Amino acid sequence: xxxxxxxxxxxxxxxxxxxxxxxxxxxxxxxxxxxxxxxxxxxxxxxxxxxxxxxxxxxxxxxxxxxxxxxxxxxxxxxxxxxxxxxxxxxxxxxxxxxxxxxxxxxxxxxxxxxxxxxxxxxxxxxxxxxxxxxxxxxxxxxxxxxxxxxxxxxxxxxxxxxxxxx
Length: 167
What we know:
The protein is α+β, with helices and mostly antiparallel strands. The chain has a single domain, classed as 2-Layer Sandwich (Muramoyl-pentapeptide Carboxypeptidase, domain 2), CATH 3.30.1380. Helix content is 22%, strand content 11%. The chain has 3 helices and 6 strands. The chain has helices spanning 63-80, 93-102, 134-142, and strands spanning 52-53, 60-61, 85-88, 121-125, 148-149, 162-165. The strands form 2 sheets. The chain has a 4-stranded antiparallel sheet with strand order 3-4-6-5, covered by helices on one side. Strands 1-2 form a two-stranded antiparallel sheet. A hairpin with a 6-residue loop joins strand 1 and strand 2 (60-61). The longest helix is centred in the middle third of the chain and has 18 residues, at 63-80. 38% of the residues are buried. The model is unreliable at 1-30 (pLDDT under 50).
């Protein structure tokens, strides 16, 4: 992945997700997902039953990250009249391995070290993935209030679509 792939309409683990097609966005109003303790699982080895769904079909995160993301998505919907576009979220270990082999050096985390593998990262699309858009600027200003940030290493056009949760 690089900044020339500005649309970031990829789905790294599309084959891993059931129903990863043109499904309608489901609005989740009851955050109620508690998920069992995801901390007890290795990076990329968290069972689906422990992860919590996002409003975007097929996307999942650790319970605390999912709850914060759902709140952020609600604020985004109020601002833009549509849900956030999520290209990728939790990433299983075998997908991390595949990406590390397929991508140019430095473009994918070493397997077992990805924030995606902890259920703490999303790759966004729909404008958030491009520097200078109103969506990206809104995220930079508002995401930190919900515990989400575009890490320093991802800024400056390297990976504007990559956002991480920190409790």
